[in-house]
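User: My collaborator and I are trying to settle a disagreement about how two of our proteins should look. Neither of us wants to argue from intuition anymore, so we agreed to look at predicted structures for both before our next call. Could you fold the first one, then the second, and keep them clearly separated?

Assistant: That sounds like a sensible way to settle it. I'll keep them separate. The first protein:
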Amino acid sequence: MGCFGLLKGMMFVFNGIIFLAGAAVLGVGIWVKVDSGSILTFLGKIENAPAELSQVLNVGYLLIAIGLLLLVIGFLGCCGAVRESKCMLLLFFIIVLVVFIAEVAGAVVILVFRPLADELFKKFGTAAVQNIKQDYGKNPDITGLWNTTMTTLKCCGFYNASDFVDSPYYNKNKNQYPSQCCSNMNNPCNQTMVDSDTAVSGCFPKIKQLIDDNTVVIVGVALGIAALEICAMAVSMILYCRIKSRGA
């Protein structure tokens, strides 16, 4: 009886965390869709961006779907454990199993189609640089979004400062770069300052470096989530069988 109560408590706490995480992910998804100044909107305004990027721009809907799924999983796990409902526990097990299989399939797809992703980023980079050269310093919306992105990430351009050469801003300001391209933002950011300042890199290389530096952490988190899902399925089945035997 003590072991059974412990399993119920573990199931309740674990799925309570899942429920709260689902609410947080749902909130982020709604924010991404509502906030017109988000980076996703910025990406969507880039002309000549690859058509495949339209799928990435639906990440807000994906986050909302994941949040709702986590809410359902957390609710079924908590209520199934507290009320000792075999139906809820079985449904919880099936949903988590489907999610686990989908995650494994997604990981395989990412590994197999990684060269296509690299090609997509290359196409997007070309479109982003062209967008800077055409509209930065001329289009207030594009200029503001690039400035916000560069200030937030502490980066310069998509690849580097050379992306701004021949842009409206560059030509209008006597061959000067945006202040974000130089560490010392109080002085004019000219070619000499850019060449001598190696602390500021492009936004894409910085994001890529951030991901590369945290690859071990990302893989560890993914494996941890997979282990938790396996444990959750095992505990739900143990509870299901114990409830069935107790009712016999």
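The second protein, kept apart from the first:
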Amino acid sequence: MFLLGKLVKYFSRQLSCKSKVASEERSAELDGFPRLTHWLRIVNIRQEITQEMAPGQVTLEGLLHLDEGQVWGVLQKFGANEEEVARLNASLACLRIDQQTVQLGHSDACWELGSGGGLC
């Protein structure tokens, strides 16, 4: 659980830094972060599913803006099973919480929730 918390924080930091740079000023390298393939590997989504996705077709930022049902629809197109989608939705929920706490100026609210048995 501790490692997952660190990884969520790491990806959240990447998203936060990226959002501070205007899209027209971003380099191609910055635009490619955080990498969805890395997130899917962390969440243990089968590699076959990741390989089915064309680069840029699905992004981590895009998934964060979808509700659970929409995430299910996207991943189902690529052959994900119910368990994989549930893991992805749970991890996205943690990432959303961390993003909200960063925006509000709090640092570790998600991990305080997690220590009490929450998702994060």
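Some points you might bring to the call about the second protein. The radius of gyration is 14 Å. The chain has eight helices and no strands.
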